[in-house]
């Protein structure tokens, strides 16, 4: 991609010979990519690639002047693989240098599907071919043409019967481009609670532009999204809605189709669409779709008339790609803020408890983030905090009574646990030594009372065995996992308890259901119980307080009547503020702590994960990186993360008050790693968890 031209140097006279229109980006979007590259130390080609449609064909060449004996004619298109196979790598380079071939990247082509079409001829005699007759009749019922897969599914006929119908001349098979996943709005005007308030607020915000923080609660989120999109369409602009999960994307698409006026188009954008994303990308770039609802992969989607960007559930970690997953290792909030600055679009961050990285007063002043008025207050459940100090039981008598009372009233109780498995750790009863993963140095989790032990990070598994230190075979299970909670609650209550996790759903209609956080908090319950709140409060990372607060707040939000929490630290500020829904009180307690520690949002950090030998790492970090750091950049580490064979993973943390200083230091680390044999580095600037 051409970003500019040089005025000096050997290549200054090179000219742009041709342009692929479908692979061009608007200048302001290119500038967004450039700034993301500088601030996040993500290579510019990687960022630009994220703004292009998926599946770009970059290994294509056009033949300009074929050499004698070449099997290709002028203007033929040939892939790099075919050229290398015929000419060899050296021959390919020579042909390109001589101008005989030229790189010719192309936009990906939409997928095609097969259709069956009736021929304009007399009807064939199919009296003795019932399957073919069924196919022909169904074709006529569908107006003479239908997708082959649908035809075979509706009739139950085989493909052989269809081929015989084609042989008789009654039909023909053709390939057509797959219909883009653009959906027309229905104009049903689905009424959202508090819609009038949200509509007035959204119109003013969209008109003025810039970033906004909107602390919507519960069902208000839907009303806010509809209001933002409606105001954007009224202004003749396009709207982009970013959601953390595919399921929420599809739900919002359905909501907007029903709520918006007729005459508009809505399209989803996520990895599950396959090549259907190509059509949505093209429609957005050309202005042929009014609303796109997508996951983080849509954060850099080009729009012809950008009007608003709405980030739903802003603090959700799924808005940022993890290593090995599709998308940029940059939170969409940062992408949206850059687009607000450069594209003059209105950007909305929706969440009842936004991340402190945009709520902190200093950040709001710097980024000029304005807070919009929230809707009315929602009913809050009764809250019971059970002090477990001095108790060795997993479940208190208060918890048992709450479950039984809810069951007797015909209600449902959701029990929230942090971890899968039977126990979160296994230790020797004699000497106390814990079973540890040899790769990651993390406690192994027990699956079942006598089941295998597994590492939640790398998947390492081993059968229970003697203690490596003292040889004792007596093991003690500690911590409360989903399986253990389910088994013990079933015994305690005398009834079968259900289970909901990402991998398993069993007996979910039971009066008491145990599950992990995302699954339980995705529904509504008469009572919600957190039997081991300390597992959340004792997590790692400087943002553990913020994550715990959001958990307690979310648990209260889905509990209609009661929220019960068991803990050994009943006075913890994140717990008290979370169960009462007091976000301001939590922020007032947490922000000074982060300021004192020098962590985001009051400073910036870069997490460097090195992999290689200890000698290579120490040479790179101690001899080259540390001496090259600017004044004001603090380095912590290196710390060992885990070992795999002869390779060791290390973590180094860089911190500074200003992001450019951290970005420069991280860039230095990348260059040092690139020239150090046997050493690789992964850089994460301002990670969500430090």
UniProtKB/TrEMBL annotation:
Entry coiled-coil feature ranges: none
GO molecular function: 3'-5' DNA helicase activity; ATP binding; DNA binding
UniProt keyword terms in alphabetical order: ATP-binding, DNA-binding, Helicase, Hydrolase, Nucleotide-binding
InterPro entries: P-loop_NTPase
Keyword Hydrolase: yes
Source domain of life: Bacteria
GO terms (BP aspect): DNA recombination; DNA replication initiation; double-strand break repair
Record-linked PANTHER family: PRIMOSOMAL PROTEIN N
Protein name: Helicase PriA essential for oriC/DnaA-independent DNA replication
């Amino acid at each position: 991609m051409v970003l500019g031209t040089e005025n000096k140097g050997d290549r200054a006279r090179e000219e742009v010979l041709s342009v692929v229109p479908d692979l061009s980006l608007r200048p302001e979007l290119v500038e967004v990519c450039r700034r993301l590259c500088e601030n996040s130390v993500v290579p510019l080609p990687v960022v630009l690639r994220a703004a292009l449609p998926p599946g770009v064909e970059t290994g294509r060449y056009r033949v300009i002047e074929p050499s004698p004996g070449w099997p290709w004619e002028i203007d033929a298109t040939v892939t790099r693989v075919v050229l290398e196979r015929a000419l060899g790598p050296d021959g390919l380079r020579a042909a390109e240098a001589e101008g005989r071939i030229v790189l010719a990247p192309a936009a990906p082509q939409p997928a095609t599907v097969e259709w069956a079409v009736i021929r304009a001829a007399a009807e064939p005699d199919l009296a003795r071919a019932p399957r073919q007759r069924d196919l022909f009749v169904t074709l006529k019922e569908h107006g003479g043409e239908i997708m082959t897969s649908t035809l075979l599914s509706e009739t139950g006929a085989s493909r052989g019967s269809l081929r015989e119908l084609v042989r008789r001349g009654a039909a023909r098979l053709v390939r057509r481009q797959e219909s883009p996943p653009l959906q027309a709005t229905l104009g049903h005007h689905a009424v959202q609670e508090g819609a009038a308030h949200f509509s007035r607020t959204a119109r003013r915000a969209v008109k003025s532009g810039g970033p906004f923080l909107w602390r919507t609660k519960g069902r208000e989120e839907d009303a806010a999204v509809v209001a933002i999109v409606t105001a954007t369409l009224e202004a003749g602009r396009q709207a982009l809605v970013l959601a953390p999960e595919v399921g929420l994307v599809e739900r919002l698409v359905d909501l907007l189709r029903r709520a918006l006026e007729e005459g508009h188009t809505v399209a989803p954008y996520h990895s599950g669409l396959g090549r259907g994303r190509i059509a949505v990308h093209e429609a957005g770039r050309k202005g042929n779709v009014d609303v796109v609802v997508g996951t983080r992969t849509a954060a850099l989607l080009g729009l012809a008339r950008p009007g608003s960007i709405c980030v739903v559930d802003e603090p959700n970690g799924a808005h940022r790609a993890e290593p090995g997953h599709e998308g940029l290792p940059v939170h969409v909030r940062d992408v949206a803020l850059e687009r607000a600055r450069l594209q003059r679009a209105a950007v909305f961050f929706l969440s009842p408890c936004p991340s402190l990285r945009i709520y902190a007063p200093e950040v709001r002043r710097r980024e000029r983030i304005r807070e919009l008025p929230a809707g009315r207050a929602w009913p809050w459940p009764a809250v019971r905090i059970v002090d477990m100090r001095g108790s060795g039981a997993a479940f208190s008598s208060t918890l048992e009574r709450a479950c039984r009372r809810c069951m007797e009233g015909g209600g449902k109780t959701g029990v929230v646990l942090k971890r899968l498995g039977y126990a979160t750790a296994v230790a020797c009863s004699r000497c106390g030594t814990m079973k540890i993963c040899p790769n990651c140095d993390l406690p192994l989790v027990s699956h079942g009372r006598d089941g295998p032990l597994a590492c939640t990070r790398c998947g390492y598994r081993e059968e229970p065995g003697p203690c490596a230190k003292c040889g004792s075979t007596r093991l003690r299970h500690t911590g409360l996992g989903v399986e253990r909670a389910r088994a013990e609650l079933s015994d305690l209550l005398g009834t079968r308890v259900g289970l909901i996790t990402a991998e398993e759903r069993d007996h979910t209609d039971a009066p008491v259901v145990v599950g992990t956080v995302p699954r339980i908090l995705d529904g509504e319950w008469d009572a919600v119980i957190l039997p081991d709140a300390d597992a959340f409060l004792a997590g790692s990372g400087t943002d553990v307080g913020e994550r715990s607060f959001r958990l307690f707040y979310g648990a209260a939000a889905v509990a209609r009547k009661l929220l019960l929490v068991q803990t050994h630290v009943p006075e913890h500020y994140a717990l008290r503020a979370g169960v009462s829904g007091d976000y301001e009180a939590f922020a007032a307690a947490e922000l000074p702590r982060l300021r004192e520690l020098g962590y985001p949002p009051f400073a910036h950090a870069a997490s460097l994960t090195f992999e290689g030998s200890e000698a290579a790492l120490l040479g790179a970090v101690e001899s080259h990186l540390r001496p090259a750091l600017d004044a004001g950049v603090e380095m912590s580490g290196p710390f060992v993360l885990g070992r795999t064979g002869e390779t060791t993973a290390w973590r180094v943390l860089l911190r500074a008050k200003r992001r450019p200083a951290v970005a420069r230091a991280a860039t230095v680390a990348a260059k040092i790693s690139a020239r150090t044999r046997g050493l690789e580095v992964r850089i994460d600037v301002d990670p969500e968890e430090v």
